[in-house]
Design goal:
The chain has twelve helices and no strands. By secondary structure, it is an all-alpha fold. Helix 1 (3-24) packs antiparallel against helix 3, helix 1 crosses helix 4 and helix 3 (38-47) crosses helix 4 (50-92). The protein starts with a helix and ends with a helix.
Length: 309
């Protein structure tokens, strides 16, 4: 490292330590988890040398291990690697959703590993235990009310408690990718704003309103549905189900984007928000997902743009 690069790395490591300590002691940990990748993004976009970025990552890794032991090590391994991947992607000009997906994959690898080391439990088992405890508490509250329909409510809670373990175990990869994608998306947006305010770089970042999957995911979804009907192998079934659930979630997002774009073209953004909230609350997500799928094939938003112009 050159002297200037070394000084800036030390400054970014110090900022990272401040974020980590606040995160470690529990001061707005949810918000700080989005900020932890920022020092890596700022440093790399300033110096543009991968070797220097790696040394900074190693320094943060060692420092947080000394401060927070194994917890600090895995926290930096998770959010530090997310920052490294986003920083390299932003610097090298990777396609926007490509760098978000690559950062999300870090969650799939590191989060289950860190959970296993820190708690001695699989992440799915820990999540199942937490949900079952919540159901047990709700069950106890319902029973204490002593209402006439309490038996049906108890039966419902028991059915949920029995079905949740298989659902969570099956869909854990999808949940991790989704959580990782949301976290990477927010961190990347924060990084873009900070870089612009500091006059370091102006990174082109696609707004969510331009989220477009294209026709290939529709084909993949159709093939997975077809294969799931004819292949009875349990491991492959789990893969197919995860792919289908993840794609349906993405089509749901695209469906909401389509609804928002439709009403935005007519200067009715408020009505779009009301309809989207109503769709979520009234279990119309399947219809919204189908709208997103149709938009992926026919690109309705381009027609809205033409009409509005």
């Amino acid at each position: 490292m050159k002297t200037r690069s070394l000084v800036n790395a030390a400054m970014m490591i110090a900022i990272y330590f401040v974020f980590f300590i606040l995160y470690f002691i529990g001061i707005f940990p949810e918000l700080l988890s989005f900020a932890l990748p920022l020092p890596f993004i700022i440093f790399h976009l300033t110096h543009k040398k991968v070797s220097d970025l790696v040394w900074m990552f190693v320094g943060c890794l060692v420092g947080t291990y000394l401060i927070g032991s194994v917890f600090g090590l895995f926290t930096t391994l998770l959010y530090g690697l997310v920052g490294v991947v986003l920083a390299i992607g932003m610097c090298e000009g990777w396609p926007y959703w490509n760098r978000i997906l690559n950062a999300a994959l870090i969650f799939v690898i590191v989060l289950p590993l860190s959970t296993k080391v820190l708690t001695g439990m699989n992440m799915s088992d820990m999540l199942i235990e937490m949900i079952q405890e919540s159901i047990a508490i709700a069950n106890g509250l319902v029973e204490s009310l002593g209402q006439e329909n309490v038996s049906s409510a108890v039966d419902l809670y028991n059915e949920l408690s029995e079905s949740i373990p298989s659902i969570i175990s099956m869909l854990m990869p999808t949940l991790l990718i989704f959580v990782g994608g949301v976290s990477a998306f927010i961190s990347e947006k924060l990084g873009t704003v900070v870089l612009k305010r500091m006059n370091i770089a102006e990174i082109k970042s696609e707004p969510l309103s331009e989220f477009q999957l294209g026709t290939m995911p529709v084909v993949v979804l159709f093939i997975c549905n077809l294969l799931a009907m004819f292949i009875s192998n349990e491991s492959l079934q789990v893969v197919f189900i995860n792919v289908m659930v993840l794609l349906n979630l993405l089509f749901l997002i695209q469906g909401f984007v389509l609804i928002y774009s439709f009403f935005k073209a007519r200067s009715q953004k408020g009505l779009a928000i009301v309809i989207m909230v109503f769709a979520l609350l009234s279990n119309l997500s399947l219809i919204v997902s189908m709208l997103g799928m149709m938009d992926a094939v026919f690109n309705y938003r381009s027609r809205f743009a033409l009409k509005s112009s």
